Amino acid sequence: MDDIVALHASHTHLFPGAQLHADREDPFLVLHTDVVILFSDHSRAEGAVHHSRDGFILQVDRYVTDAGTHLAAKSWSLMPVDGAFKIAGRLI
């Protein structure tokens, strides 16, 4: 499990502006990194981060929030900001 990076989300779901904090420095040194996103409501989702021209692409698998809401798989552009990562926008 050491190969998987944990990303701690600032909220219960992702949206442009939400922040993610990695469990280690320089978490995305390789082209593809498996991640687990830990949300503030204690739900979790699996996914991966890939390098892009402008930063990173975060692909999140479908998951269920602690309140029981089913969220579809989505991709997000991810930018490093002040020692964390910010969701810059949703990708189609």
TrEMBL record:
It comes from the Bacteria. This is DUF4440 domain-containing protein. It comes from Brachybacterium halotolerans. The lineage of its organism: Bacteria, Bacillati, Actinomycetota, Actinomycetes, Micrococcales.
